[in-house]
Design a protein that fits this description.
- With 409 residues, the chain is of the alpha+beta class.
- 34% of the residues lie in helices and 20% in strands.
- The strands form 3 sheets. Strands 7-13-12-10-8-9 form a 6-stranded mixed sheet, sandwiched between helices. A 5-stranded mixed sheet has the order 4-5-6-1-11, with helices on one face.
- α1 crosses α4 (132-146) and α8 (220-240) packs across α9.
- The longest helix is centred in the last third of the chain and has 25 residues, at 288-312.
- The protein is globular, with a radius of gyration of 21 Å.
- It starts with a strand and ends with a helix.
Length: 409
């Protein structure tokens, strides 16, 4: 994994008034429950030792920042996309690149209270030690502890298990992690959020005629990935005047891919990437159905390879490393158009309740990279918000794609 922090911000309304003592009590209670959660998740209070690739569980602690605003949460949520996006970094405790050194916290949190009593909880988790399943387990453990009456059954459900290093011991391996700038200052990032509502996804699915079981009722994620990939292929050809091979990488949670399956409270990084590709000769002769078949086949390959390799010996690493090697070989290849997709849909953080109900919005922060798409559940839970990171020119072209105009808002 790269030396970056994974940023996540959860926004909550409050039924209480916005008096100062209420703000203070809210902050103090969150801080107290955080210290209790960190007792369970003790590696997050340690420091990453880059040269030895291990976590020193030194109890140096997590970074905790408090902030207040002079506006209401509804004022922020009502802003235009450009203004809202420009403010996201203000709700995070640090830059996503400030990770990987011995004095960098593995977990940083910023709690911001609004005039209305609403709260934004901005979190940065080191990707070296945690994936989204781990982040979700931690967030729900913290949220459960923040309730006036802490539910012991929920705490057991969200108590971490740190067995990966024992079950899958590390070996010396090439460092394949991308080099990320430590600071995003001065880096121009262009992002648009395309919202695909449930009714639009249903209409898109109804248009498909399933040729075989490989595309039987595709998930909403695979539908949106296929739709965006198809549009990006057309944008790339329009810009260069020629067809190039197109590769995409999708992040895959391996907990439900191994045999037997592992629960989501197995904590650490247990992810891989599924690589899908089309050749330059396919660009003009491929439809949405074909994109879905290619995507589905790449996921099935991951499922088969990981299940077999990890079930038999738990020491067969070639199948673990190969997708990352293929990613490294192609990301800098000028003859290939490469895109990375990751989905945070359906993870339990979407419903994390600290005592104020579910979040009214969820967002990430500023990523300096391009050719990257991050997908999240919309507020209703059955649609998709796709955060597309491209240069300005290609983003404008993507917005004009007929399929994007037909299904996204």
């Amino acid at each position: 994994m790269p030396n970056i922090n994974t940023p996540l911000i959860l926004y909550y309304t409050s039924s209480q008034n916005a008096q100062n003592d209420v703000h203070i009590n809210t902050i103090n209670h969150l801080e107290t429950s955080l210290t209790k959660a960190l007792t369970d998740f003790y590696p997050l209070a340690g420091r990453y030792m880059r040269h030895g690739a291990f976590v020193d569980c030194s109890d140096q602690g997590a970074l905790y920042v408090q902030a207040t605003t002079n506006f209401r949460l509804s004022d922020f949520l009502g802003l235009t996309w450009e203004l809202k996006y420009s403010m996201l970094q203000d709700f995070l405790p640090c830059d996503i690149g400030e990770s990987g050194e011995t004095d960098d916290p593995l977990l940083s949190i910023k709690v911001t209270t609004f005039e209305c009593g609403g709260v934004a909880i901005g979190m940065c988790f080191s990707h070296k030690v945690s994936d989204m399943a781990t982040m979700s387990t931690f967030i729900n453990n913290w949220a459960a502890r923040n309730h006036e009456t802490c539910n012991s059954l929920e705490l057991r459900k969200y108590s971490p298990i740190f067995n990966f290093a024992h079950d899958f011991p590390k070996r010396d391996e090439l460092d394949l992690s991308p080099r990320i700038p430590r600071s995003s200052f001065g880096v121009k990032a262009t992002v648009r959020m395309f919202s695909f509502k449930a009714n639009a996804i249903s209409k898109l699915r109804e248009k498909l005629t399933f040729k075989d079981d490989r595309t039987h009722r595709p998930s909403k994620i695979q539908l949106i990935v296929a739709l965006l990939w198809k549009a990006l292929v057309h944008v790339d050809k329009a810009n260069t005047g020629q067809s190039k091979a197109s590769f995409i990488q999708q992040g895959v949670n391996l907990r439900d891919k191994v045999v037997p399956k592992l629960p989501n409270n197995f904590c650490g990084n247990f992810v891989s990437v599924a690589i899908s590709r089309i050749g330059p000769d396919q660009v003009d002769n491929i439809d949405l159905q074909d994109f879905l078949i290619i995507l589905n086949d790449s996921i099935k390959k991951i499922e088969g390879n990981y299940a077999n390799a990890l079930m038999l010996t738990k020491k067969e690493y070639n199948v673990l490393v190969e997708p990352f090697l293929e990613f490294s070989r192609n990301i800098a290849n000028n003859d290939v158009n490469f895109y990375a997709f990751t989905s945070w849909c359906k993870f339990s953080f979407n419903n994390a309740d600290f005592g104020w109900g579910n979040p009214v919005w969820r967002s990430t922060g500023h990523y300096a990279g391009q050719n990257f798409v991050l997908m999240m559940d919309d507020q209703e839970g059955d649609g998709v918000e796709a955060w597309v990171h491209l240069d300005e020119n290609r983003l404008c072209q993507l917005e004009q794609d007929p399929d994007i105009q037909a299904y996204a808002i």
